[in-house]
Write a structure and sequence with these properties.
- InterPro entries: NYN (IPR021139).
- This is NYN domain-containing protein.
- The structure is a single chain.
- The chain has 89 residues and is α+β, with helices and mostly antiparallel strands.
Amino acid sequence: MLFNHSIQPIQQFAYTKGKNATDRLLIIDTMDLLSTGRFDAFCLVSSDSDFTRLTSRLREERQTVYGSAKKTPKSFVDRTMEGDPSQTA
């Protein structure tokens, strides 16, 4: 199924406690994609409020941001174009 949808799994090890290396990797990858200039919209499917600043940063670059997840923080929903307010925590 991953191959059919061009999804590349990446193992991320936790080298230190209390750090979320996976979130940081996703943020770095998103900023790399933003810097290519090839995209005008991003979709973040996460209920993690750690991505709120990423969402703001994408909007600063005039990107359309779609966001969705169960119990999405209001701050995250407020910074997306298509956040679902009915799912706000």
